[in-house]
Amino acid sequence: MSKPSIVLVHGAWHGTWCWSAVQRALEDRGFPVIAVQLPGVGAVARGDLESDARAVRSAIDAIEGPVVVCGHSYGGIAVTEGTAGAPHVVGLIYLCAFMLDVGQSLLSAVGEPPPWWSIHADQKLVRLNEPERALYNDCTPEQTMQAMKQLQPQALATFEQPLRRASWRDIPSTYIVCDRDEAIPPEIQKAMAAQASRVEHLDAGHSPFLSRPRELSELIATLATTATHS
Protein backbone atom coordinates (compact mmCIF):
# COMPACT_ATOMS: atom_id res chain seq x y z
CA MET A 1 0.00 0.00 0.00
CA SER A 2 1.32 3.44 -0.93
CA LYS A 3 1.87 5.95 1.83
CA PRO A 4 -0.76 8.63 2.48
CA SER A 5 -0.13 12.25 1.67
CA ILE A 6 0.43 14.48 4.67
CA VAL A 7 -0.86 18.05 4.76
CA LEU A 8 0.76 20.36 7.32
CA VAL A 9 -1.11 23.47 8.50
CA HIS A 10 0.73 26.14 10.48
CA GLY A 11 -0.64 28.17 13.34
CA ALA A 12 -1.20 31.88 13.87
CA TRP A 13 1.58 34.33 12.94
CA HIS A 14 3.58 31.56 11.26
CA GLY A 15 3.90 30.26 7.71
CA THR A 16 4.93 27.18 5.78
CA TRP A 17 8.55 27.95 6.74
CA CYS A 18 8.00 26.55 10.24
CA TRP A 19 7.47 23.03 8.85
CA SER A 20 10.67 22.87 6.78
CA ALA A 21 12.61 20.39 8.92
CA VAL A 22 9.58 18.18 9.56
CA GLN A 23 8.59 18.23 5.89
CA ARG A 24 12.07 17.16 4.81
CA ALA A 25 12.13 14.35 7.37
CA LEU A 26 8.73 13.05 6.27
CA GLU A 27 9.66 13.23 2.60
CA ASP A 28 12.86 11.31 3.37
CA ARG A 29 10.56 8.59 4.73
CA GLY A 30 8.68 8.49 1.45
CA PHE A 31 5.59 10.52 2.36
CA PRO A 32 4.22 13.07 -0.10
CA VAL A 33 3.95 16.29 1.94
CA ILE A 34 2.23 19.63 1.34
CA ALA A 35 2.52 22.60 3.69
CA VAL A 36 -0.41 25.01 3.36
CA GLN A 37 0.00 28.78 3.59
CA LEU A 38 -3.02 30.30 5.35
CA PRO A 39 -4.23 33.68 4.02
CA GLY A 40 -5.13 34.85 7.52
CA VAL A 41 -1.46 35.59 8.18
CA GLY A 42 0.15 38.72 6.78
CA ALA A 43 0.66 42.44 7.17
CA VAL A 44 -2.67 43.11 5.46
CA ALA A 45 -5.80 41.66 7.08
CA ARG A 46 -6.97 39.82 3.97
CA GLY A 47 -8.05 36.49 5.45
CA ASP A 48 -10.43 34.99 7.96
CA LEU A 49 -11.27 31.54 9.27
CA GLU A 50 -13.38 30.77 6.21
CA SER A 51 -10.59 31.63 3.77
CA ASP A 52 -8.10 29.64 5.84
CA ALA A 53 -10.44 26.64 5.79
CA ARG A 54 -10.80 27.00 2.02
CA ALA A 55 -7.01 26.98 1.64
CA VAL A 56 -6.85 23.71 3.57
CA ARG A 57 -9.67 22.19 1.53
CA SER A 58 -8.13 23.32 -1.75
CA ALA A 59 -4.87 21.58 -0.89
CA ILE A 60 -6.71 18.40 0.09
CA ASP A 61 -8.90 18.35 -3.00
CA ALA A 62 -5.82 18.52 -5.24
CA ILE A 63 -4.49 15.25 -3.80
CA GLU A 64 -5.39 11.79 -5.01
CA GLY A 65 -5.52 9.01 -2.46
CA PRO A 66 -5.67 9.03 1.34
CA VAL A 67 -4.66 12.17 3.24
CA VAL A 68 -3.67 12.83 6.84
CA VAL A 69 -3.90 16.46 7.95
CA CYS A 70 -1.89 17.94 10.84
CA GLY A 71 -2.78 21.34 12.28
CA HIS A 72 -0.71 23.27 14.80
CA SER A 73 -2.23 25.64 17.38
CA TYR A 74 -4.74 27.93 15.56
CA GLY A 75 -4.23 25.74 12.50
CA GLY A 76 -6.30 23.09 14.25
CA ILE A 77 -9.37 25.30 13.81
CA ALA A 78 -8.74 25.76 10.09
CA VAL A 79 -8.27 21.99 9.78
CA THR A 80 -11.48 21.25 11.72
CA GLU A 81 -13.49 23.44 9.35
CA GLY A 82 -11.60 22.72 6.15
CA THR A 83 -11.62 18.92 6.31
CA ALA A 84 -15.33 18.54 7.08
CA GLY A 85 -16.90 16.22 4.54
CA ALA A 86 -13.61 15.44 2.80
CA PRO A 87 -14.01 11.76 1.85
CA HIS A 88 -10.33 10.86 1.44
CA VAL A 89 -9.06 12.40 4.69
CA VAL A 90 -8.33 9.34 6.82
CA GLY A 91 -6.84 11.02 9.87
CA LEU A 92 -6.49 14.33 11.70
CA ILE A 93 -3.57 15.31 13.92
CA TYR A 94 -3.95 18.18 16.38
CA LEU A 95 -0.49 19.36 17.43
CA CYS A 96 -0.95 21.35 20.67
CA ALA A 97 -3.85 22.76 18.70
CA PHE A 98 -7.29 24.21 19.30
CA MET A 99 -9.68 21.30 18.91
CA LEU A 100 -12.98 23.15 19.14
CA ASP A 101 -16.61 22.35 18.46
CA VAL A 102 -19.27 23.99 16.31
CA GLY A 103 -20.10 27.49 17.50
CA GLN A 104 -16.77 28.05 19.25
CA SER A 105 -14.09 30.51 18.15
CA LEU A 106 -10.51 30.85 19.30
CA LEU A 107 -11.36 34.02 21.24
CA SER A 108 -14.32 32.37 22.94
CA ALA A 109 -12.06 29.44 23.87
CA VAL A 110 -9.21 31.49 25.35
CA GLY A 111 -11.46 34.00 27.12
CA GLU A 112 -8.98 36.69 28.15
CA PRO A 113 -6.29 37.19 25.47
CA PRO A 114 -2.80 36.53 26.88
CA PRO A 115 -0.52 39.52 27.56
CA TRP A 116 1.77 38.65 24.66
CA TRP A 117 -1.05 39.36 22.20
CA SER A 118 -1.40 42.92 20.94
CA ILE A 119 -4.85 43.39 19.37
CA HIS A 120 -5.19 46.29 16.95
CA ALA A 121 -8.94 46.32 16.33
CA ASP A 122 -8.71 49.40 14.09
CA GLN A 123 -6.30 47.53 11.80
CA LYS A 124 -8.12 44.22 12.28
CA LEU A 125 -4.79 42.60 13.18
CA VAL A 126 -3.27 40.76 16.11
CA ARG A 127 0.45 41.30 16.58
CA LEU A 128 2.81 39.81 19.13
CA ASN A 129 4.45 41.40 22.14
CA GLU A 130 7.64 39.55 23.15
CA PRO A 131 6.26 36.02 22.69
CA GLU A 132 9.63 34.25 22.95
CA ARG A 133 8.87 32.39 26.18
CA ALA A 134 5.35 31.36 25.23
CA LEU A 135 6.15 30.13 21.72
CA TYR A 136 9.81 29.08 21.82
CA ASN A 137 10.68 28.26 25.44
CA ASP A 138 12.55 25.05 24.52
CA CYS A 139 14.13 26.33 21.29
CA THR A 140 17.74 27.40 20.94
CA PRO A 141 18.49 31.14 20.83
CA GLU A 142 19.31 30.78 17.13
CA GLN A 143 16.04 28.97 16.38
CA THR A 144 14.11 31.60 18.31
CA MET A 145 15.84 34.48 16.52
CA GLN A 146 15.21 33.00 13.07
CA ALA A 147 11.57 32.31 13.85
CA MET A 148 10.95 35.77 15.27
CA LYS A 149 12.23 37.32 12.05
CA GLN A 150 9.56 35.50 10.05
CA LEU A 151 6.48 36.06 12.19
CA GLN A 152 3.67 38.08 10.62
CA PRO A 153 0.52 39.76 11.97
CA GLN A 154 -2.63 37.64 12.20
CA ALA A 155 -6.06 38.74 10.96
CA LEU A 156 -8.32 39.33 13.95
CA ALA A 157 -11.23 37.73 12.06
CA THR A 158 -9.51 34.34 12.21
CA PHE A 159 -9.88 34.41 15.98
CA GLU A 160 -13.41 35.85 16.04
CA GLN A 161 -15.29 33.61 13.62
CA PRO A 162 -16.97 30.51 15.10
CA LEU A 163 -16.66 27.06 13.64
CA ARG A 164 -19.54 25.94 11.44
CA ARG A 165 -18.45 22.30 11.15
CA ALA A 166 -16.35 19.92 13.26
CA SER A 167 -14.69 17.25 11.15
CA TRP A 168 -13.20 15.41 14.14
CA ARG A 169 -16.69 14.13 14.88
CA ASP A 170 -16.49 12.00 11.73
CA ILE A 171 -12.76 11.54 11.02
CA PRO A 172 -10.40 9.64 13.38
CA SER A 173 -8.19 12.10 15.23
CA THR A 174 -5.06 12.17 17.35
CA TYR A 175 -4.20 14.96 19.76
CA ILE A 176 -0.51 15.51 20.49
CA VAL A 177 -0.13 17.18 23.88
CA CYS A 178 3.10 19.16 24.22
CA ASP A 179 3.95 18.78 27.88
CA ARG A 180 6.20 21.85 28.16
CA ASP A 181 3.92 24.22 26.26
CA GLU A 182 3.63 27.70 27.76
CA ALA A 183 1.28 29.09 25.10
CA ILE A 184 -1.52 26.55 25.51
CA PRO A 185 -1.04 24.98 28.96
CA PRO A 186 -0.97 21.16 28.89
CA GLU A 187 -4.05 20.91 31.13
CA ILE A 188 -6.06 22.88 28.57
CA GLN A 189 -4.68 20.69 25.80
CA LYS A 190 -5.70 17.56 27.70
CA ALA A 191 -9.24 18.87 28.09
CA MET A 192 -9.52 19.35 24.33
CA ALA A 193 -7.77 16.04 23.69
CA ALA A 194 -10.59 14.24 25.48
CA GLN A 195 -12.54 14.62 22.24
CA ALA A 196 -9.87 12.87 20.15
CA SER A 197 -9.75 9.22 19.18
CA ARG A 198 -6.16 8.94 20.43
CA VAL A 199 -3.79 11.02 22.57
CA GLU A 200 0.00 11.20 22.35
CA HIS A 201 2.54 13.29 24.24
CA LEU A 202 5.73 15.10 23.31
CA ASP A 203 8.24 16.47 25.82
CA ALA A 204 8.27 19.81 24.02
CA GLY A 205 7.12 23.40 24.11
CA HIS A 206 4.69 25.04 21.71
CA SER A 207 6.93 24.77 18.62
CA PRO A 208 8.19 21.17 18.37
CA PHE A 209 8.65 21.55 14.61
CA LEU A 210 11.65 23.69 15.57
CA SER A 211 12.80 22.18 18.87
CA ARG A 212 11.99 18.50 18.26
CA PRO A 213 11.65 17.99 14.48
CA ARG A 214 12.99 14.42 14.49
CA GLU A 215 10.69 13.20 17.26
CA LEU A 216 7.72 15.04 15.76
CA SER A 217 8.27 13.71 12.25
CA GLU A 218 8.61 10.16 13.60
CA LEU A 219 5.33 10.50 15.48
CA ILE A 220 3.48 11.99 12.50
CA ALA A 221 4.84 9.21 10.26
CA THR A 222 3.63 6.57 12.69
CA LEU A 223 0.19 8.15 13.00
CA ALA A 224 -0.15 8.54 9.23
CA THR A 225 0.78 4.90 8.65
CA THR A 226 -1.65 3.76 11.33
CA ALA A 227 -4.45 5.88 9.85
CA THR A 228 -4.26 4.09 6.51
CA HIS A 229 -4.37 0.65 8.12
CA SER A 230 -7.25 1.25 10.51
General description of the model:
The protein is of the alpha/beta class and 230 residues long. The chain is 37% helix and 19% strand. The protein is built from ten helices and nine strands. The strands form two sheets. The chain has a six-stranded parallel β-sheet, sandwiched between helices. Strands 5-6-7 form a three-stranded antiparallel β-sheet. The longest helix is centred in the last third of the chain and has 17 residues, at 213-229.
Distance between the termini: 13 Å
Query: Which class of secondary structure composition applies to the elements?
Result: alpha/beta
Question: What is the CATH architecture term?
Answer: 3-Layer(aba) Sandwich
Instruction: Choose one word for the global shape.
Output: globular
Question: What is the averaged pLDDT score?
Answer: 95
Number of domains: 1
Order of helices and strands: EHEHEHEHEEHHEHEHEHH
CATH class: Alpha Beta
Query: How many strands, which pairing sense, and closed or not: the largest β-sheet?
Result: 6 strands, parallel
Query: How many whole angstroms does the radius of gyration measure?
Result: 16 Å
Helical segment count: 10
Strand content: 15-25%
**CATH-assigned homologous superfamily:** Alpha/Beta hydrolase fold, catalytic domain
Oligomer: single chain
Number of strands: 9
CATH fold type: Rossmann fold
Q: Helical residue percent?
A: 25-40%
Low-confidence stretches: none
User: Which strands sit side by side, in order, in the main sheet?
Assistant: 2-1-3-4-8-9
GO molecular function: hydrolase activity
Domain AB hydrolase-1: 6-218
Protein name: Alpha/beta hydrolase
Keywords: Hydrolase
